[in-house]
Specification:
This protein is of the alpha/beta class. Helices cover 43% and strands 11% of the residues. It is built from 18 helices and twelve strands. Helix 5 (180-196) packs parallel to helix 10 (288-314), helix 16 runs parallel beside helix 17 (449-461) and helix 17 runs parallel beside helix 18.
Length: 491
């Protein structure tokens, strides 16, 4: 499909959907909750399609498969992460040669508007996960949704032409939402899935944020990055900034000063007026910092819309939704950017990540990171208590306890209620992501059947329209999957 044809179709879809309100042409049985599980191609290759589907039905009443179709990351594809305990099913070995890519056939006619042509996953030869799984799933009445994510590797042919740039013009390992080749790839991939296979829907996710939050390390594991390597400042972002009236020279100056602040803070050098005041001084002096952050966020929202319109142009009744990163539970800045009312018009459903078990470890990591930059004046426990308060969920364990204890079912309940309230007045379905055996450190909390059962029950008490068992079947223990099933059966 050439650009002119696509824009014509997209315009038609937009006109048909105006005003867009989510669920345009998409329907889910009102009497049936969505019970989903994320699963990669490797599970079907290792265990066979029918045995895997048998487990899903018998253990957890699964009615929807979120099949990992495109990723270069281990979060949703591949076997268990090396070094973590192997689950009680599947091959009892690690796939140390994991590569990733697209786990379906590539139909070239959909990729005329991108330089990316060679992105087929080599892991399983010519195995096409959708072609293989769809017939078996349909016989059982199971729906299939493509699950693709924003995770890349730097040796994909031509991928550097799509990449973000840092302040010094160095190529990053992430792709720019304003790059036309990246946008063309996402549109092509979406239409390939929807036109080539009878899938029920598509879900795409991007676990990233803008340069301002990244410089501050405002995410779990966020304190390891170089504040000078934040993104994106490429030619396409600069052009978009100029169109918004943003002075790029001021942007560069502001981010250079921010990098100095962060580097000094992480080195233990307290500013004369403290961390919080000094950061505010920078923001007041350089309002371009927040303007650039919002430019990045708006670019992500525009990517959502482009994928939504591409899918609806291909087939109006297909479902389209998004995976919303776990950082939404930790970082107030990121949560402010995830305005559900703004996202809902192009969202048939949302998977809000509410991972309780690994959440304790992740929250502690976030607190430790921002406790050295923006909140460097605040002791760790007080900083955690502050986040419990401003993120509006009941206090959990102390900062020293939460990695070992995880977060509770009450966290799942409150976060589900908050998302439900945030979607009030929309038709967007809420499908929280529930943690089953997501890897944690050896000394940190591990999933249990009782904990999984409680989390699933809490999500439904909070008003969820379904649950999505996450991250991937290939790392889940069947005993814990059964715990989810017990909750579902009891409901």
């Amino acid at each position: 499909m050439d650009r002119r044809t696509f824009h014509k179709l997209a315009a038609g879809a937009a006109a048909a959907a105006a005003p867009m309100s989510g669920q345009q042409g998409f329907s889910w049985p009102a009497s049936k909750k969505m019970i989903g599980i994320q699963v990669g191609a490797v599970s079907f290759v290792d265990e066979g399609v029918e045995p895997v589907l048998d487990n899903f039905e018998k253990l957890a009443n699964i009615n929807t498969l979120f099949v990992a179709t495109f990723t270069y990351g281990r979060g949703i594809a591949g076997r268990q992460v090396p070094g973590q305990p192997l689950p009680d099913h599947g091959k009892q070995e690690y796939d140390t040669g994991f590569h990733g890519g697209n786990y379906t056939a590539i139909h070239p006619q959909f990729y005329s508007n991108t330089v990316l042509k060679d992105f087929r996953a080599p892991d399983h030869g010519n195995f096409d996960v959708l072609e293989t799984v769809l017939p078996a799933a349909q016989k059982r009445g199971m729906k299939v949704i493509c699950w693709y994510e924003d995770v890349w590797r730097n040796d994909v042919p031509n991928v550097s032409k799509l990449a973000e740039k840092d302040l010094q013009g160095r190529t990053a390992g992430t792709m720019c939402f304003n790059n036309p080749d990246h946008r063309g790839f996402l549109i092509g991939l979406t239409q390939d899935y929807v036109r080539s296979y009878p899938v029920y829907g598509v879900m795409w996710g991007s676990e990233r944020q803008g340069a301002f939050s990244n410089a501050l390390g405002a995410s779990h594991g966020g304190g390891r990055g170089d504040p000078m390597r934040v993104t994106c400042f490429c030619e396409f972002c600069q052009k978009k900034g100029r169109e918004r009236g943003i002075n790029f020279d001021r942007v560069k100056e502001g981010f250079n000063e921010l990098a100095k602040f962060v580097s000094a803070s992480r080195g233990g050098k307290r500013p004369v007026d403290g961390y919080y005041v000094t950061l505010w001084r920078l923001m007041l002096r350089y309002p371009e910092l927040l303007a650039w952050e919002m430019l990045w966020t708006d670019s992500l929202r525009e990517t959502y819309k482009a994928i939504y319109l591409a899918a609806k142009a291909a087939r109006p009744g297909v479902g389209v939704g998004w995976h919303i990163w776990h950082n939404n539970s930790f970082n107030p800045i990121y949560r402010a950017e995830q305005d559900l009312q703004a996202i809902a018009p192009v969202s048939d459903f949302l998977k809000m990540v509410i991972y309780h078990n690994c959440g304790g470890e992740r929250l502690a990591s976030y607190v430790d990171s921002v406790g050295k930059t923006i909140y460097g004046d605040v002791p760790r426990q007080e900083l955690l208590d502050f986040h419990y308060r401003v993120m509006d969920y009941k206090s959990e364990k102390s900062i020293n306890e939460i990695p070992k204890a995880g977060l509770s079912a009450e966290y799942v309940l409150s976060e589900t209620k908050r998302a439900r309230a945030g979607l009030e007045g929309t038709r967007t379905l809420l499908w929280p992501g529930i943690d089953i055996d997501i890897p944690t450190a050896a000394s940190s909390s591990k999933s249990t059947p009782a904990g999984t059962k409680a989390a699933v029950e809490a999500a439904f008490r909070g008003g969820a329209d379904g649950v999505l068992l996450s991250r991937k079947y290939s790392e889940m223990m069947l005993t814990n999957l059964r715990g989810a099933g017990e909750a579902i059966k009891s409901l």
